Amino acid sequence: MPVMSTDDFSIHTDGCERYGDGMPISDLPDEVDSLEDLDCQCWDGFDSLEEAT
Prior knowledge:
By secondary structure, the protein is mainly beta. Helices cover 8% and strands 19% of the residues. The longest helix has 4 residues.
């Protein structure tokens, strides 16, 4: 499940240590069309956006 950081509203995986205090979200924002749209390296382990969600 994706998690949105409350510090800077970046999106991370629930296992990522970089988001600090965060809020689970059920879906990625509409602006996210591919893994390249997600800045954190926690998404590097996925081959596709469909696999990540």
